[in-house]
Amino acid sequence: MIELKGVRKAFGEHVVLDDCTLTVRDRETMVVIGYSGTGKSVLLKHVVGLLLPDAGQVIVDGQSVPDLNRHGLSNLRAQIGYVFQAAALFDSMTVAENVALGLRRRALADDEIAERVSEALALVDLTGNDDKLPAELSGGMRKRVGIARAIALRPRYILYDEPTTGLDPVTSAVIDQLMVRTREHLGVTGIVVTHDMRSAYTVGDRIAMLYEGKIRQVGSVAEIQATQDPLVRQFIEGIPS
Amino acid sequence: MITALGRNTAATVRSVGRLGQFLSDTVRALPDVGIWFPLTITQMRRVGVDSLPVALFIAAFTGIVLALQASYTFTGTVPLYFVGTLVGKTMMLELGPVLAGLALAGRVGASMAAELGTMRVTEQVDALETLAYDPQSFLVIPRIVAGTTMFPVIVAFAIAVGITTGWLTSLGLLGLSTPDFLKGLKLFYVFKDVWYGLFKSATFGFTITLVGCVVGLGTRGGAEGVGLSTTRAVVYSAVLLLVLDAFWAMTIL
User: Fold this and answer.
1) Helix (H) or strand (E) segment spanning residue A30
2) Which residue of B lies nearest to A155 if distances are taken between CA atoms?
3) Is residue B19, in this structure, part of any structural domain at all?
C-alpha cells in the first residue's frame, strides 16, 4: 500500500503540494489527473524518495520513505519500477543494457539477467531490438523500453509519469494496453500520472484529481465520470474556462 | 545594499554547504568499489586518450616558444645553454601542468558538466536512483578518480614533448648543441621539479573533475541550464586551478 498523509512540498515560495492525502491500495492502479504543473510528478517522486516532503508522511509498504537510510531506500527502490515521462534511457547504452541495468544491481547470474531482459522486451513487443541505441528508437518505442526496464525488476509497485504524453492516439492505446497487461501479468500496485482522460479510463481502477496541491476528488472510474464537482467535470470534459 | 550583501553571503554559505554535502556523499559511496571501479577504467580512457592530443599540441608549441624567448633574453648576457635550464624547469614546474590543466578544464570539465547536466535535466540521474544506484558511485567517483590519476600521466607526456620541441628548436634555430642543451637541462635539476609538477597536476585533475561533476549534477532547466553549467564549469575550474597553482607555489616551493 502507498499512503501520502498531509504532504506539503514547496520550492522556494511556490507551494506545490499542500496537505495532500492519498491512499493507493494493494494491486490497484490509481490514476492521478490534473492540470499541467499542478505537482503530479512531484507527488510521484515523493513515493520513491527522489523528493522529500517538507511536512506530512509518505508510507510505502509500511515504511516511512523520508525516514529510510541509504540502505533502506535502496531496498525499497528495488521493489519499485519507475517509468519516466521522457523514458530517461541512458543514451550510451543499448536497449538491452538499459533494461539490464537495474538487474545488474542485484546478485543475479548473467543468464538470468539475459532471460529477464528478453522476457521484458517480449512483453513490450520489442523483441529483436536489443542492440539498438535509444537515439535509433521512436518516441513510443523509447517509452516501451522505459516500461520494460521497470518491469524487468519484477517490482511490487510501478509508477508511470505521463506515459502517453506526446504520443499519437494509436501508440497511446498500445501503451495503455501494455500498462493493463503489466498489471495482469505482474499483479503490481500502480500509480499513473496523466492528463490523458482516455488513458485514465482505460488503465485506472480509481482516479484522483490533484488541484492546487490537494486531492480534490478520488473515486472509481464510474464515480469520476458521474462527478458533480464542476472543477473535476471541467477537467475531464476538457471544457475551457 | 545590506540586503544584497546578506543575500550573497547566504548564497555563498549555501553553496559551501552543498559542496560539503556533495563531498561527504562521495566519500560515503567509496565502498561501492564493484560499481565505480569498472566505470573508472572507461573514464580513464576517455580523459586520457581524448585529452592527450590537445595537451601535446599545446606543449609542443610552448617548448618552441620557450626556447626562442629564452634565447632572445639570454643572448649577450647569459650563456646560451641556460635555454635548456629554462625550458626544463618551466615545463616541469609551471607551464606543463598549468597550460595542460587550463586546456583540460575546457576539454574535460566542460564535457563532464554538459554530459551530467544533460543526464540531470532528462531525468537519467533520477532513473539511476530509482534503479537503486547511487549517482556518486556510478557517475562521480569514476570521473574524479580518472581525472586525478590521468592528469599527471597527460602532463608527464606534455612535459616530455615540450622539452623535446625546445631541444629541437635549440638545435635547429639557435645553433645550440645537444650536449649544451642537456648541460643546461641538468644544471639546476632536482627530483622535486618532477614530483611537484605531477602532484600539482593530480590536484588540478581532482579539482576540474570535481567542479565538472558538482556543476553538472546541479543543473536545472533545459538546454539553457546545460549551457550555463558548461560555461560555469570552465570558468570555475580555470579560476580554482590558478588559485591552487599559487597556493602550491606558496606552500611547497
Assistant:
1) strand A29-33
2) B131
3) no
At B21-47, the pLDDT tens digits run: 888 889 988 998 989 999 999 999 988
CA angle A14, A18, A15 (to 5 degrees): 0
Domain count, chain B: 1
State ipTM: 0.87
Whether A105 contacts chain B with CB within 8 A: yes
**In angstroms, what separates the C-alpha of B134 from chain A's closest C-alpha?**
9
Residuewise pLDDT in 10s, chain A (241 residues):
999 999 999 998 899 999 899 999 999 999 999 988 889 999 999 999 999 999 999 999 889 999 998 888 888 998 899 999 888 999 889 999 999 998 988 878 889 999 999 988 988 888 888 899 999 998 888 988 998 898 888 889 999 998 888 778 887 888 888 888 888 888 889 999 998 888 899 999 999 999 998 999 999 999 999 888 888 898 888 888 7
Q: Which candidate from A75, A80, A105 shows the least CB-CB separation from B133?
A: A105
Cβ atoms of residues B202 and B97 within 8 Å: no
Nearest to A50 among B28, B124, B129 (CB): B129
Query: What count of residues does chain A have?
Result: 241
Residue B118, domain extent: 53-252
- In three-state secondary structure terms, A128 is coil
Tell which A residues from 56 to 85 touch B, by Cβ distance under 8 Å.
Answer: 70, 74-75, 77-78, 80-82, 84-85
Contact A175/B at CB under 8 A: no
Q: Which of A14, A104, A117, A133 is the mutation pick for testing B, counting most B CBs within 10 A?
A: A104
Is residue B188 included in any domain, yes or no? yes
Residue B2 lies in a domain: no
Inter-chain Cβ pairs, chain A and chain B, closer than 8 A: 47
Entry pTM? 0.86
d(C-alpha A93, C-alpha A133), whole Å = 6
Interface of chain B toward chain A, CB-CB under 8 angstroms: 28, 122-124, 126-127, 129-134
Residue of A nearest to B127 (CA): A88
Residues on chain B touching A91 (C-beta within 8 angstroms): 124
Query: What is the DSSP secondary structure assignment for residue A220, as one 8-state letter?
Result: E
- Cell 506545490 belongs to A16
| C-alpha torsion angle, residues A95, B118, A16, B9 (rounded to 10) | 150
Please give the grid coordinates belonging to residue A4. 501520502
